[in-house]
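Case 470 in the screening queue. Each case pairs one protein sequence with one candidate compound; here the compound is manganese (II) ion. For every case the pipeline is the same: read the inputs, emit a complex structure as tokens, and attach any notable structural observations.

Predict complex for case 470.
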Amino acid sequence: MNNTRLGKFKTKLLRRIRHGNDFMSSSKIKIADEFCQDYKKFLNECKTEREVISFVLAFAKSKGFEEFNPEKTYESGEKIFLANRGKSAVFCVIGKNKTKRGTKLIVSHVDSPRIDLKPNPLYEMNNVSLFKTHYYGGIKKYQWLTLPLALHGRIMLANGKAVDLKIGEDEEDPVFCITDLLPHIGKDMLTKKLAEAFFGENLNAIVGSRKLSIDGETSCQEKDCVRLNILEILNRKYSIVEEDFLSAELELVPAAKARDVGFDRSMIGSYGHDDKVCVYTSFMALLDADCVPEKTTIVGFVDKEEIGSEGNTSMKSRFLEYFVEDLADRDNMKVRHVLSKSKCLSADVNPAFDSNFANYFEQKNSSFINNGVVLTKYTGSLGKNGSSDASAEFLSEIRTFIQKNNILWQTGELGRVDDGGGGTVAKYVANLNVDVVDVGIPVLSMHAPMEVVSKIDVYSAYLTFKNFLQ
Ligand code: MN
Ligand code: MN
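Case 470 output:
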């Protein structure tokens, strides 16, 4: 075989993985960079599930989406939304065929790992006041020590009034912090296993250290005067009394803003790319899709993925199914027939190959940053346990469509065989008898307070979602 023939043979038969730079022109990369400017703003504004949902609801309304009305019939081209308890929502564009040939779905999750406050959080020890916490989602506890943390969330007062807090995001705001031991002492800690060196019960955040002043001059001499001072401040500023913590959802999240990473500014470092990167790209894809789709398209945002998709705002809730049923009823269709003809991209992030931890990845099947949107056939752990494992037929359909639209793409896995793993909402979508596959973005340091993604990949995901929906 001569060299030319060998070249053709290789092009035809070998799978090629390409770096974004070899695939996209400089002008295209510039468009990706610009797209990511607004994504960074979104990340800074939306750190919690409630904040994401408020943001997308307001944005969709400004783009002509109307709240779903169960009494109304809808014509093709109409745009509707339905929110669920402020923590999950669906956005829908009625297609030309309505629900008769099924729907096209993209589902992603709005929650990210974080440090929640316990229902009775405030205490004082040795003249320092702290919050007791219970972490949410899979975290490496040590990563959350000695970080500036912001407090976000909602407190329901006894009179039914909601108080929304966001403290630590403004430059002038105070922040909170979980302390760590200095390296000079506690040498035994350095030789401990990670899981034995840090305890969830010790992830207590410092919130104050001054005593309550009685009359502006003398300090209080009772027990717990530092704690009382915090309660006085909270009461003065937000009308909160201690008991109100019992009816609150308060979350400590990294106070840092999203930043460009690298001299070439090719990446974004931020809290919460998992899974806000898929929320943002799929949402923008729906808003930007410029024609009335054949099939009805639905973009769904669910909560509680990081703790197993439990609860009425999660993917295990029947909220999405009920919504599809409401649409199906209008078309004299049965929801089961609509769902069984529906196709879904479960939009979630994938762990990118990390050369600092090369041993933990199997290179031939890992995703890499700058290699585009990731197609993940299966997740799960220890023998694909707990995975939806997409079919060859559906993968073929999605692969062909991505390639037809000339989008940079790759495949991914969730770490080495026998070495842990995880899951996404795909399996709960699959339970509805919907064809589903995980599609997403490679992330470095997933679940850390600062996760890293590549701008080219973010844009490739946006293009994938947009072309899927239109
Ligand atoms: Mn995720
Ligand atoms: Mn996650």
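Case 470 observations:
- The mean pLDDT is 95.
- Residues 114-254 form a domain with the Aminopeptidase i, Domain 2 fold (CATH 2.30.250.10).
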